[in-house]
Amino acid sequence: MTTTRRGPLVLLALLVLATAVGPARAQEPAAPGASARPSAPSAGRYVGPTSCGQDACHGATRPRTVYGVAQNELYVWLNQGPHARAWEVLLDERSAVIARNLGLPGGAEEAASCLSCHATAPPEDLRAGAIEVADGVSCEGCHGPASGWRSGHTAEDWSYEDAVAAGMTDLRSVETRARVCLGCHLGEPGRVVDHDLIAAGHPELRFELDNDSETMPPHWLPFADKPPAARPPRPTHGVRAWAVGQAVALREGVVELARRARGQEDTRWPDFSWMSCDACHHDLAGERYRKGLATGFRARPGLPPWSPARWVVLRVLLNRHAPDARAALEADVERLARQVSRITTPPGEVAATAERIAGHLDGVVERLDAVEWDAAELRATLRDLTAERRRLASHDLASAEQVVQAVYSLAGALLAEDPELLGTGLVDAVSALEDDLDEAGGAGGAWDREQLVRMLGLVDEWLSERAENRPDEEVR
Q1: How many CB atoms lie within 10 A of CB 377?
Q2: How far is residue 371's CA from residue 318's CA, in Å, rounded to a whole number?
Q3: Rounded distance, CA 345 to CA 335, Å?
Q4: 300: left (phi over 0), alpha (psi -120 to 50) or beta
Q5: Torsion of CA 65, 69, 71, 77, to 10 degrees
Q6: What is the SS3 assignment for 188?
Q7: How many CA atoms lie within 13 Å of 416's alpha carbon, on the beta-carbon side?
Q8: CB 304 within 8 A of CB 240
């Protein structure tokens, strides 16, 4: 699976969404018949997506702006989004091959290990309505079991906080949303994509909160389109999600690694899904094996290195916003990389290092969540990123994808701040990065690190020219 990309037209669409500020709208009263603050005797049970699908609730076919939500969420989920088709994927030929390779009885569509991520399939004692695995990942898979808040969250005297207290998942919290997504797109107890599953044919798990969220068909109103009374205190998408998502992804990744090392997951140890796939799975034509991977994390030639994909961009962010935390984290990340690359390292040592990294990251998440991303901060962070282009390009393809997605997030936010930038070389420079990753396409023989250095250099040149031509702009 290659990186999620935003071409120039998508960036333009994001700009339109981000700047579409209409006249302020007052919060409308609750829908007719909404009850006030009901008791919730069955809180924590799943009621199914059809209970949300009335036209006056979330089943409209066109977006509205009355209640601070689009009201066509179910329609978008069912007809445009990938989550409604998550179970259907288990019926295709690739899934059949994976099931055969793993010896799964009954096929992937019936295996609990597959349904844990490809469907909202709670146990029977947690069901209070019609739940079908064919619905895929439905509303409650992300928003939480609705029995405690479904009837009350439309009531006039209920706040968003009331709904969260009654069991709704607080997806306005960027950290919480990242954890929910990573539950499947990285792993958690009961949801494991290990090296055996990848070797059997499952795609490698790669995820970045901002880009992967924004390239989905949105079933939410942009922050600026919400009535003032319905807006969260700060925007919940965009570059803030990108920055926080980087820290949460590494934290949740090392927590999952520690569980596997301690034998708390049903996986083999060592688990090579944490390694750089490029190191072993590459084309030997042209003696490419002689070039190796200059990651700096290799224990010795011949051993697969740990993939730094969840660290390379976060390191740049920390250097700017938490330099005191970066030093301790970098030492432990390099220690972890050496430990997992030596298959004889006692798994308890790996787990201890991973848990220590997770502990460092708790405070880092909070600090990154507090950053205010004005135009000067966006440019400065983008310059920090491109200034390290040779180091960033020395890692594997998965790391390069995170770098390109970081540039997309920062450049997209800059375009939203200043529409005049659409007529500059920024879009061309970012598009060149997209073309480079398209050429790689996940095929090891096509991956050209020097090309990434050149493309990041184009972005850096644009930033330098911008600073020279606009000396009045603050450059931090």
Answers
A1: 18
A2: 12
A3: 11
A4: beta
A5: 130
A6: strand
A7: 25
A8: no
Provide CB contacts within 8 A for 433, sequence distance 6+.
Answer: 404, 407, 408, 452, 455, 456, 459
- Using only C-alpha atoms, the chain has a radius of gyration, in whole angstroms, of 23
Name the amino acid, one letter, at 462: W
**Residue 372 is which amino acid?**
E
**Segment 370-381, tens digit of pLDDT:** 999 999 999 999
Q: Residue 74 — very low, low, confident or very high, per pLDDT cuts 50/70/90?
A: very high
96 CB burial (10 A radius; 0-12, 13-18, 19+): middle
pLDDT digits (tens, 9 = 90+) for 436-470: 676 665 444 456 788 888 888 888 988 888 776 66
**Contact assessment for residue 307 and residue 277, using Cβ atoms and an 8 Å cutoff:** yes
Structure tokens at 16: 């339109």
Q: How sure is the predictor about 292, in pLDDT bands with cuts at 50, 70 and 90?
A: very low
What per-residue confidence (pLDDT) applies to 282? 63
- Rounded distance between C-alpha atoms, residue 257 and residue 254, angstroms: 5
Q: How far is the C-alpha of 405 from the C-alpha of 210, rounded, in Å? A: 9
Distance CA 473, CA 375 (A): 9
Q: For the chain, give the mean pLDDT.
A: 82
Q: Which pair of structure tokens corresponds to residue 272?
A: 């090579």
Q: Say if CB 116 and CB 134 are below 8 A apart.
A: no
| 217 confidence band (pLDDT: 50, 70, 90) | confident
Nearest of 452, 310, 434, 439 to residue 388 by alpha carbon: 452
CA 115, chain centre distance (Å): 20
Give percent of the chain above pLDDT 90: 50
Paired with 188 in beta bridges are: 191
The two structure tokens encoding residue 438: 């398209």
Go through the chain and tell me how many residues it has.
476
What the block records as the tokens of 340 is 């997992």
**b (16+ CB within 10 A) / e for 325-355:** bbeebeebbbbbbbbbbeeebebeebbbbbb
Please tell me the pTM assigned to this model: 0.86
Amino acid type, 276: S
Give the closest residue to 2 by CA, choosing from 309, 393, 283, 257.
309
Q: What angle do CA 335, 340, 343 make, to 5 degrees?
A: 130
**CA–CA separation, 231 and 225 (whole Å):** 9
One DSSP character per residue, 252-279 reads: HHHHHHHHHHTT-SSS-SS-GGGB-HHH
Lowest model confidence (mean pLDDT) among 79-88, 169-178, 297-306, 392-401 = 297-306
